[in-house]
Amino acid sequence: MPKKKLNLGISLEKEIFEFIIRNGIKIYPVNEIEMEYLRLGKKIPFIFPKPIKYYIEFEQNGKKSHFKKKILNSEINDSIVKTYIHFYNQIKNKSDGIDKRNSN
Description:
This protein is an alpha+beta fold and 104 residues long. It has helices at residues 14-22, 32-40, 76-103; strands spanning 3-5, 11-13, 25-31, 53-60, 63-66, 71-72.
């Protein structure tokens, strides 16, 4: 099965990526400054201080949320891959539990 290789060494199987997309989950980085400006309803500045920290935000069934851990720009790709794998395992385990209950 083809794998998508990211810059920091963690690979994501195409099957996992497509599975998460089909289940309506969107995963993306949002920087902490932008997030705060949006929360306050202010205009977002074009220039940010460095280094900018990010949150991994996800949207599931139309509801947005984010993980509380802040990450650096260099950690974004690995964190997104880990998030895809987290949701894949969560959904698969949930569906496996349903299948096991229905077979009894």
